[in-house]
Amino acid sequence: MALLEIKDLTVRFYTQEGVVTAVDNLSYQIKRGEKFGVVGESGAGKSVTALSLMRLIDSPGRIESGEILFKGQNILDMTEKEVRSLRGNEISMIFQDAQTALNPVYTVGEQISEAMRHHLGYSNEEARERSIQLLDQVGIPEAETRYSDYPHEFSGGMQQRAVIAMALSCDPDLLLCDEPTTALDVTIETQILDLIEELADEFDTAVQLITHDLGVVADICDRVMVMYAGKPVEKAPVEELYYDPKHPYTVGLMSSIPRVGDTRDRLQTIPGTMPDLVELPPGCSFHPRCPFAEDACTTTEPALIDIESSDEATVDSSRAAACLEYTDQLQNGLDYEVRVVDENTGSEMNPTQTGGSQNV
Ligand code: SF4
Fold first, then answer.
1. Which of 12, 31, 207, 331 lies in disulfide reach of 35, CB 3.0 to 4.6 Å?
2. How many domains does the chain have?
């Protein structure tokens, strides 16, 4: 049984401008100990999905339908008390801004201890000891002394380390990381990502990593789901996604990753922006930005198709993409070329795909 299985989840926000479908009929699963990346631009529905798992969608938002099965139990059917005992205990979340996750009037150590006293019934002394151990494990020097520091006495990177210690304090089975390094500079970003990966392995914790950056996913994740306008457009094991992306949006995201030794004057970007979720374009919602769009794309919504079987994808599908190419409804097909180049030698590692002109 999967640790987490999302089935046909739909989340809407009832705003003055109209009804926003932030997550539309979304299904996926995460296995125990697996690191799963969710990628897309702002407005793709990544964070709303994570908040739904914790049942933290507030008015005017509403989880309209679907199931969120955690260890086989539907979180949407649980009482508020049951959900509270799950949050911070079996499922923890790391937000992008550590500063807002920490309470400025309590010491860092107190905040880490609190969850263990509450969820695990630790005494004050036990919780203090374990918190100091965790601070040490996440790389805070002089952990015993720093236990009594207030959040403002920590740098941004140290605050995020403290938040990770807090998230792992109750040994959760699932860690939701929502853009955990966005507020940090690049060198600290690498350290924090390494730390999340290392601790997730050590604690045997599954990770759902939400990011707009495919480069971050490559470092950590086993599998990836790319989202666009509230829907999954591609799912794949991480290496397959990089060597052989199947959806034009994924190709666009990959073209815009900066690389060491890049000789391009400008990074390629995906033209346009995420559509207004109140009024999505008809047909494939990516069509106004897609270089391969044809007439059929403006009228027919592509289903998520299992690439191997050519049938509609299920949660078990290892490779899936939502493009009319996979239901033979495109006349010209997709025409791009993927070149993966070794940063050190400059040589091509594993060219794939059909002929064309777009280097990714
Ligand atoms: S269905 Fe059409 S518009 Fe959508 S991704 Fe495929 S080619 Fe592009």
1. 207
2. 2
CATH number at residue 324: 3.40.50.300
Cα separation, 9 vs 50, whole angstroms: 11
Question: Which of 155, 356, 319, 295 lies closest to 226 in space, CA to CA?
Answer: 319
φ and ψ of 65, to 5 deg: -160, 170
Residues 230 and 329 in one domain: yes
Q: How far apart are CA 148 and CA 140, in angstroms?
A: 12
For ligand 1, whether the C-beta of 286 sits within 6 Å is yes
The pTM of this model reads 0.89
224 inside domain: yes
Domain boundaries, position 111? 100-169
Ligand 1 within 6 A of CB of 229:
no
Same domain membership, residue 139 and residue 207: no
Per-residue pLDDT tens, the chain, 360 aa: give them: 899 999 999 999 999 999 999 999 999 999 999 999 999 988 889 999 999 999 999 999 999 999 999 999 999 999 999 999 899 889 999 987 887 889 999 999 999 999 899 889 999 999 999 999 999 999 999 999 999 999 999 998 899 899 999 999 998 999 999 988 877 777 788 888 888 998 899 889 999 999 988 888 888 899 999 999 999 999 999 999 988 999 999 999 887 665 555 555 555 668 888 888 899 999 999 999 999 999 999 999 999 999 999 999 999 999 999 999 999 999 999 988 877 666 666 666 654 444 333 444
